[in-house]
Amino acid sequence: CHPLAETTNVEDGGQSLLLIDKYAEAWRAYRNPSDGSNYSLADKPFANLGAARPLGFMKDAYGNVIVCDTNQGLVSLEPSGRAVLLASRVSASSPIDPDSYIQYANNLDISRSAEGTIFFSDSVQMPAAVKHVPGERPYFEPMITAMDTLVTGSKTGRLLAFYPHNGTVHVLAKGFWFANGVALSEDESFVAIAETAGFRIHRFWLKGPKAGTMDILIDRLPGFVDNIVRAADGSFWAALPMPRTIQAYLLKSKILRALLMYISPVQLQPTRWGAIMKVSPEGKVLRFLMDPKGSRVSATTDVQEQKLTDGRTRLFIGSLITPFVSYIDIQDDE
Questions:
Q1: How many C-beta atoms lie closer than 10 Å to residue 206's C-beta?
Q2: Is the pTM of this model over 0.90?
């Protein structure tokens, strides 16, 4: 549909898609009535978030699009098209890292409770770099910072919570090697958070005897993990943009990371490979879909499950390097 199609939000039962590109312009793509499969991008964007680099976003209960912006923090895009900054730093009342800046807001999920708490990741304590490409407008390029994080071993990622009733932001957990996707469990007893360079997904418990503690949902993943979202049956979809190659194993060593940076940094760039997997709330792998050569889907960053108006279940798949959103229709019993 439109570069960069990293993350999408499905609207009106699959009748339209919401996209926000690397220039912070918000677009809609509408389902073609003739075939019901392809989507056509609108002639122009309906909003602009300003000096921003949006990554994950989703709608809240009031129709606002809540955006994780690596440059500004947490932003609300109202139905009118007006962008409102919700938070750019952690509150002084936070028990962890009070008064610290939100450096790299990445992804989020919103509680369905009356409080509407927004849980989101702050990937690393390093801002996104500005990229200048001849013939293009400058834009914030988060991949530069992400690659720097991998080779430096900076484990400064955090899980944050924004409380709309009083506008405060608290740090719930820290120490992630590039914190990424965030998704609440069906009963909201825990929030899952992806640790990209750790090849694993954590659970931070919000309720019950484990409240306030963290454990591992699943680890030893076959690739770097990006966004995670809750599926209709209460499990989780996870997007894996790059495979776990020999270069990825070298990241565990500080000396080898330094050598890798000089010898073959290109090997850590997105490749023509893509995968998504479905994981139960207990950490069991339920499905694994892969395009080993990236001929159709590659560098997968996002998965959105949607029941269409005609009854089909469709997965919309975002990508880090392709200028379109892919989809696949699945059967519930597959």
A1: 20
A2: yes
Place of tokens 């690596």: 70
Q: How far apart are CA 327 and CA 158, in angstroms?
A: 31
Cα(86)–Cα(89) distance, integer angstroms: 10
Which of these, 329, 327, 332, lies nearest to 303 by C-alpha position?
327
Structure tokens at 69: 């912006």
Q: How far apart are CA 316 and CA 29, in angstroms?
A: 13
End-to-end CA distance of the chain: give it in Å, rounded.
28
Q: What digits encode the pLDDT tens for the residues 206-256?
A: 999 999 999 999 999 999 999 999 999 999 999 999 898 766 666 777 777
What counts of helices (H) and strands (E) characterise the chain?
A: 3, 28
Bigger pLDDT: 21 vs 169: 169
How far apart, in whole angstroms, are the C-alpha atoms of residue 334 and residue 326? 19
The mean per-residue pLDDT over the stretch 183-204 comes to 97
DSSP 247: H
Owner of token pair 């994950």: 56
Token representation of residue 292: 């080993």
Find all residues with CB under 8 Å of 106, minimum gap 6, and list them. 55, 56, 68, 70, 120, 121, 122, 123, 142, 179, 180, 181
Question: CA 175 to CA 139: how far, in whole Å?
Answer: 28
